[in-house]
UniProtKB/TrEMBL annotation:
InterPro entries to which the protein is assigned, alphabetical: NAD(P)-bd_dom_sf, SDR_fam
The protein, known as: Uncharacterized protein
Keywords: Oxidoreductase
Domain of life: Eukaryota
Example of a GO MF term: oxidoreductase activity
UniProt keyword Oxidoreductase present: yes
Family: Belongs to the short-chain dehydrogenases/reductases (SDR) family.
SUPFAM superfamilies the UniProt entry points to: NAD(P)-binding Rossmann-fold domains
Organism lineage: Eukaryota, Viridiplantae, Streptophyta, Embryophyta, Tracheophyta
Length: 303
């Protein structure tokens, strides 16, 4: 699996660029806001946590704009991007970072019976992690394309979505979280082709492993007891910033222990092995018939 070397020397290229992101008040999002600001970027971020968001904004001062938002509300995404465009006149990079853990562990509880199953479970994890990311991406793309006179200019624009290591592998006890993060990767794979062709916008995903944030506090004792690999939110933030500045499209960066790898090239090149020759040929034939590129043919749309 090809490694993705995080070149910190390119971080200075963020100077003067306008970044819009969700989930900026804490954890990975907060670390990202700080990193962009430290390298001269302008940040407009949304978050539901007013107290922490205002603390962060006050601490950093200039070129930081906060808007209270709920990522499950489509109109809030529109307001976020309108705010950024009105203030700065352009948007260079958009990152969907907001997310939560499993909100309701009762979805597939073994104790469910024909009576208790009549009560619906909470959809909040999917609403925030997947639907919120879809809302963000839908609004982000036209704002990123706005003002571009050619696709050439679009090479500098990017959309990044936060998935998870659990978007790549099997987990236990978190079906909605895992489903939502798999969905984010599916969205990235689709948009990395269409957005590049139609508007010259690069689309990528970052998939963090265990990261020391408030979201993972409950897991930390087990992690430490077994000496498992982890990382700080600052290390994930570096991968997020780096992928906005590198000329890369359609990547899914696994970030674990502060190191990063792009899982997509090997997944594409080995398609005939895991899908089989017949299935692989069928996918190629369908893609040719509809004149589209697919993950399986290993195509990366150059922009």
């Amino acid at each position: 699996m090809p490694s993705f070397d995080i070149d910190r020397k390119i971080f200075s290229q963020a100077n003067g660029k306008v970044y819009v992101l969700t989930g900026g008040a804490g954890g990975i999002g907060s670390a990202l806001v700080r990193l962009i600001h430290a390298n001269g970027g302008k940040v407009v971020f949304g978050d539901l946590n007013v107290v922490e968001a205002e603390k962060l904004s006050a601490a950093l001062g200039h070129d930081i704009t906060y808007m209270q938002m709920d990522v499950t509300r489509y109109d809030d995404h529109v307001k976020l991007f309108k705010t950024a465009l009105t203030k700065h006149g352009k948007i260079d990079h958009a990152l969907a970072v907001a997310g939560i853990n499993e909100s309701d562990h009762g979805w597939f509880d073994d104790a469910l019976d024909i009576n208790t199953v009549e009560k619906p479970a909470s959809d909040l994890t999917v609403d925030i992690n997947l639907k919120g990311t879809m809302y963000f991406a839908r609004v982000a793309l036209p704002y990123l394309r706005h003002g571009n006179s050619s696709l050439e200019k679009g090479r500098e624009k990017s959309l990044v979505m936060l998935s998870s290591q659990l978007g790549l592998v099997t987990g236990q006890g978190i079906p909605l979280y895992q489903s939502s993060k798999h969905g984010v990767l599916g969205l990235m794979r689709c948009l990395s082709i269409s957005a590049a062709r139609s508007g010259g916008v690069r689309v990528n995903a970052v998939c963090p492993g265990m990261t020391r944030t408030a979201m993972t506090d409950a897991l930390r004792p087990v992690w430490e007891a077994h000496k498992l690999l982890d990382q700080g939110p600052e290390q994930v933030a570096e991968a997020l910033l780096a992928i906005t500045l590198e000329s890369i499209n359609g990547a899914a960066l696994l970030v674990d222990g502060g190191e990063a790898w792009d899982v997509e090239p090997e997944l594409a090149s080995s398609r005939a092995q895991w899908l089989g020759p017949v299935g692989s040929h069928t996918i190629d034939a369908i893609a040719k018939a509809f004149s589209v590129a697919t993950l399986g043919d290993g195509v990366k749309v150059d922009i």
